[in-house]
User: What shape does this take?
Amino acid sequence: MASQEYIPMASRQSRDTGWWFATALGLVSVIAAADALTPTWADFIILVISGPLFASARNTPRRTLVVAGYALALTLAVEISHEPAVPQADLLARSLGVLLAGLLASLAASYRQRVEDALGESEARFRMMADTAPVLIWVSGPDGLCTFFNKPWLEFTGRRLEQELGDGWADGLHPEDRGRCLATYRAAVGDRRRFQVTCRLRRADGEERWVLATGVPRFGDGDFLGHIGSGIDITDQRRVEEDLRAAQDKYRGLFENAVFGVFRSTPDGRILEANPMLARLLGYESPEELIASVDDVGRQVYLSPAQRAEFVSLMLEQRSATESEIQFRRKDGSVGWFSISARVVRNDDGSVRCFEGMMEDIGERKRLEEQLRLSQKIEAVGRLAGGVAHDFNNLLTAIGGYCDLLLRGLRPGDPSRRHLDEIRKAGERASALTRQLLAFSRKQILVPQVLELGAVVGDLETMLRRLVGEDIAIHTVVPPGAGRVRADPGQVEQVIMNLAVNARDAMPGGGRLTIEVGAASLDATFARENPGARPGAHVMLAVADDGTGMDDEVKKHLFEPFFTTKEQGKGTGLGLATVYGIVKQSGGYVSVESELGRGSTVRVYLPRVEEAAEPKPPAPGAPPPGGPEVILLVEDEAAVRGLLTEVLEESGYRVLAAKDGPEALRVSQAHAGVIQLALSDMVMPGMSGRELIEGLLVTRPLTRVLYMSGYTDDAVVRRGLFDGEAAFIQKPFSPDALLAKVREILDATPA
Assistant: This one.
């Protein structure tokens, strides 16, 4: 049925037209042959009879001759019987004319049969090809109504041909696609043009499948005959494409939102692709700006082309490079540290196609590593300082103590006083150097108290003016109520003086020194950007100068012990290291801002407290008088033990001396009277000071205790104390300081 609706329409018309044309030509031949004779009704009867006779011969030669003879005889018989008076020659001519007409009719019939056979074979071949094609095929007429659907179409939709013909096929379209699909199709019919559309078509099992429909126009003798088209099931393809698109979107999302910079670059240094993070890391507004601006990463991003060549060589040798730490130049010219990992992508022939990789900013990590390195260096020097401090402080205690004893026995004008004064000053300088070493290593023992930072600056101003010289103007900014901190007053003074001296040395030709105190609040962002800082309320101490300033390389080593830019013999390299150690041990933070030729500003932040400031201690006066009390002295260093025995006995005390803990316990046991005070070294061989005191207090619970030590590590000292309130005096100390401390403990009201 479908094949009968396809193509034969125009062919059938041409076939019938040919037959009638042949018949008409036969009539003309009859008239021409008869010449002047007028055709009769008999001629037409014979013509009608002979035509089918010839046609029945079906163009077979033998049958045609037989039929031709029969037709000629029949024609002559009819003509003679009808017109006996006509000459026989004329009748023969008329018969031949009728015979020619029959032959022409036979040819017309034969042509018609061949056309029908050819059309049938063509249609059969078309149907066979259409029904075996792996696609859906359809044909429509000039009015847009479909006249044919192949077998795969009908099997796909599960509908009968009658249901699909015309515009019935549109019932299988998805409701969301029907309007768009029909509009596209009707527009193509109206414009007589090719079209293509994708839509969902319901399959026999009810599943909506995506189909790509394509139609091309058909023309015959210049007339538009309709469209012939195909449909391809692209559902699986679309799913693959959707999966691929989803994967691409996922990759693109990861690429665009990655916290690492991601890139692809050519061997000659052009950037093919970059994500937003890479652009931000290098200081550009967008990846597009980065790609457009940088045409040679070796020259514009790396510090030098040789640096990139070395990195590329590493990748080519190892096929990839992992976590290489490289300095890159940003858009604004600044340089930062980055970690980069990349691999080589090659073509099929082995040549390098491109490099792919990612990078991250490790500037913060580098700063932390630098701080750790500095801390480790400080710790190492601190361990060294702590290790020698005990013996060194014992020696300084003996040197200073004996100098004081000798000075007490000399007249004011005695020439020997000058020499002893120099010895004592040298000992004091050595003691100060030891304190500086221990300060930056944060191993000294602090005696913190609540104080007004502005008041400390005010008390030091006069001394600072003498310290920096007349060619440097000092300007202090201390607003009232700037805030209080808990710190060791002596250490805070040390910080201010060290910063002032450092500023003075940066202004050899004179200048201006500004010391400012003020309230400051450090937020979480500041603490995050400045490792070591803690958020919260602080009091800031700023010391600024307009001197030579520092470059980046100097600032890297600023707080390192023994690092100095001064001439040999002009500095120890401990000034700022001491400041750093004191501030850190006090729970604060120190920062430095400096540019070469534009001066420096050092800011110290100490945690703010709300307690009231403690009163200043009275200035030291004459040594307090001694008394009849008995003191148990325990010291393993013989020189120090001899000095302390002499100092105490000269003040009227009775001294029971022992070189270590076991001996002290034996001395205590042998002494029948009261022992008012035990003065013991903290660290001694065999038995520590704490163990000694614990044993002593078992039999003498009323004896008071004063610890002394040349070790200054706060943690070591505190582990050896009997309790947190035990009295302690740090070596080296002067005889007067010792006598004052002893008298203070003996006169204190028992708890």
Q: What stands out?
A: The domain at 367-438 is CATH 1.10.287.130 (Helix Hairpins). The chain has six domains: 3-129, 133-239, 258-361, 367-438, 446-609, 630-747.
